[in-house]
Design goal:
The protein is built from three helices and no strands. The protein is mainly α and 84 residues long. Helix 1 runs antiparallel to helix 2. It is elongated.
Length: 84
């Protein structure tokens, strides 16, 4: 597994955890342990995503922040790396 794939896997893991905890929090709104877990992993997911975007480019349109050009369509697309 390349460094890029390892970084992307970490981003995916943290974003999956956030999604799952958010589903739980939808029905357990005052669970402090779950809220703390969510906040901790949200910060880590944001950090990992920012590192990935800086090194390899945007994962989503909202990651494109350049004022010089539209980076999102400058490829390769995120899914194209797996094909190589």
């Amino acid at each position: 597994m390349t460094e890029r794939e390892q970084m992307l896997q970490k981003v995916r893991i943290h974003e999956f955890m956030l999604f799952e905890v958010a589903l739980y929090l939808d029905t357990h709104k005052t669970d402090q342990e779950a809220l703390c877990f969510y906040q901790k992993h949200k910060a880590e997911a944001e950090k990992l995503r920012a590192e990935f975007v800086e090194k390899y480019g945007p994962l989503a349109m909202s990651d494109s922040s350049s004022t010089r050009c539209w980076e999102w369509s400058s490829g390769p697309w995120p899914w194209e790396y797996a094909a190589n």
